[in-house]
Structures are given as C-alpha cells and as structure tokens.
Amino acid sequence: MHPIHEYQNQLTRRQLFGSTATGLGTAALAGLLAQDGLAAEARKPVGALPGLPHFAPKAKRVIYLFQNGAPTHVDLFDYKPEIVKQHGKPVPASFLGDKRFSTMTGNATGKLMLQPVEPFKQRGKSGAWVSEFLPHTAKIADELCFVKSMHTEQVNHAPAITFMLSGGELPGRPSLGAWMSYGLGSMNENLPAYAVMTSISKGTSCGQIFYDFYWGSGFLPSKYQGVKFRNSADPVLYLQNPKGVSAEVRRGVLDDLAKLNDIKLKEAGDPEIATRMSQYEMAFKMQTSVPELTDFSKEPKKVLDSYGPLVKEPGSFAYNCLMARRLAERGVRCVQLMHAGWDQHNSLTTELYNQTRDTDQPSAALVMDLKRLGLLDDTLVIWGGEFGRTPFIQGSLDDRKKWGRDHHPYAFTVWMAGGGIKPGISYGETDELAMNVAKDGVHVHDLQATILHLLGIEHDKLTFKFQGRNFRLTDVHGKVVKGILG
Fold it and tell me: How far is the C-alpha of 250 from the C-alpha of 286, rounded, in Å?
C-alpha cells in the first residue's frame, strides 16, 4: 500500500481531532483533499460521514454570491409605494419601537424617509419587483426565488457576516462550506472541496475586510477550511517545478518525503504531519488541474460576453463568477464568492451604481450558464448580504450626492436559484415601509436549515462534539422553509 493511503487508514479519530486548534497556516492546500476532476459526478463522494446524506438531495453543490456590506433591499428588491409617499417625512414612531440601530444612527426618531433611488418595475411572468439598478437580474426573475422576509440579530458587519456564514456571531465556528465538506465529503481529488474568492469594485470607498474566519473550519479538522484563491492569474502559488526538475523527479521526492514523514508520524502521532503529506500530494496534482481551471481559451465568446467586460480580469467579480461555474462543473462542493463595497452610508447615488454595474450581469450570467450546461438543477445559487439598509436616510435630504442608508437587520432580501428551489416566486413580506417582517419571516438559522435540507441533510443531525457539547450550523434553532422548496 502507498504510504499516503496507509497513513490515512492508520490515523485514529482521536489523533485527527486532537490538534485541530493548529494548522490554519498549513491548511492552504489541506481542503484540496480527496476531490475529483471533470468526471466527479460519476463517482461516489470521498470522506462523507456514514449515513449522509440523510435523504436524496436536490442540490449537490452550493455557490454563495455573498455581498459584503449589505445590499439595500429598499432600493433593489422590496418595492413599497408607501415609502415614495412618505419621502422626506419623519419615520413613524410606531415602526421603530425599541429597535437598535448602529451608532451612526443612534436614536432613529425623527429620521426622514428616503424613496428608492431608481424606479422599480415588475418583471417576467412572476411579476417580481426588481429595480432599474439590476436590468440583468430582472431578465432572469422567473428563475429566481426572492426571500423578502429575511431577518437577523446583528447590527454590525463582522458579527452579522459571521452569523450568516457560521451560525454564530463570534469567530471560531465552522463555516457553511466547512460543514458541507465535513458531512458530505468531496467529489474531486484535484481541486478544493470548498473554494473561496474575493473581489471589490474598483475605486470603492466602502469596502469590507475579508476575515479568514469567514471561510474557516472552526473546531472541525483544518482540512475542511475553505481554500482562498488569490486575485490574480496565478491563484495558487508555488505550483511550478523549479527549472531542471521534471515531474518524475518531483514524484520521487514526494515518495521519499512520504517515507520520512511516516516515520515521524509513528513517533509523534501528530495528525498535522499527515496533513502536510496530503498537501504535498495535492500540490503535485494541482500542477495540472489549476492551469486547466483558469484557462478560459475554450470558453465560447458568447459565454464570455454574457459575464460582462471584466470577465477576463482576474480578481473581478465577473472573473470569479465564471471561475465558480468552472469549479462547480468540476465537482467542487462549495464555492463562496465575497464581493465588498455595499456599505453605502453616504454613497447611494454613486457607489450603488458601481456595485450593481459590477455584480448584476455576472450574477445573472452565472445562473443562465449553469442552466445551459444542465447544472442548475443540482446547484444551489444564493445571492445576498448580512442584513439590509434602513428605509430612512442617513445624511441630509438636501445633499443628494451624500445620500445613504444605515444597517438594518430587521428585514432584508436574498435571492436563490436552482438546487431544488421553487423558481419565479417571492416569499415573505415586509410592512408598508420595508421596516419589519410582516409575513413568513425567515431567520438566518432557517435559511441555513433550508440550505442543508436541499443538500439532503437534516440540520439538527449534522453535529460535531466540541468542549463537551454537540455543535451544529444552526445552533439550537432553525426550521426548513418549505414554502420555497420546488
């Protein structure tokens, strides 16, 4: 038996879980284990927990188009004629109650209502309301499910993003992608089970920090951590052999290293030694898989054009969307794109145009490209941020160039497509000022439970024991939103 396989068989559960507090630095390639190539769909996932999935899944993979900074639901998706009527008037006290807003708003009493910056229209056969800000999303409205009754508990960005992606507002819990790869295993041995890419619109002044714990493995073994690709044409460093070193020589070096590491592993029993060995093996495989992944030369011009003018610019949202489709096509379990710049406290009339320009067309193109390839049926696409924006103004109504909206956790919108989601519907409602959820509220834990359900997982049964407690993505909450299931 090859040493790598022997080590995997001999490694005990206790050894594997015993040192997961370390290794984040060495985990850059550890999430690239036990994957497969273009034939991934024909093969059984590697490393899945016994008994998973719990039932037949609708989705095999997830692409999460996460919009850092919180898109404004009142300007993009949640049309309320009453807001237009109330423009310039103080927000009614009855809508505020004892709500907590960020320190930038403080007490919201007396704040003036602000109408949508651009007009809305009803789109497609479904009649979904979508703003003029999003002409490409508007064209695919009948493919989408708009969840308009999302609500959360956090009022600031980092804890709200962490809560949305990991189920807890404090760093240290596994992210959605980590739970997916831990529970369902991998469909590819040459690419990540869980891949992450980040982007930000050029010239933006309201970007957000991308913390590593947004795609971390938390208390799960470090190999389940998301692998972040760099924003360049060379997304993974050090894949090229030095001059004079052939693939055969490299193979021999790795075999010899495996023998030496086997000796050390038996002496120390440190699972990070096995992780390091796997990293070496994955780097060897990625010398072929990554260059092929990033080579767009065989993509039809029509497809490239559909993603917009920035599709060939590494690090752009358009480039990352096409990469997400290619990763999904190759069997990657979870792809998480994070695009910053939505935090428009005083830049609705400037930066909101930039954000929608850079994200609207690629997002719509991704959905339709997946559909073209027959992948949308079992790929769940999610678009949204950590909360919404206030229906009242931040700043002076007389200074249009500085119009803004503050954080709003009490109601916001996300959209979903494919992967078992019912298309062409709007689920849930807010009140007449888009301030509060009025019907069919969907909490963050409900969304997480629904995502896992679509993957064939009962959310209360995917657990990991840590510090004496069985943890799960949905904490002790969450219910599946059956009304959006196809």
Answer: 13
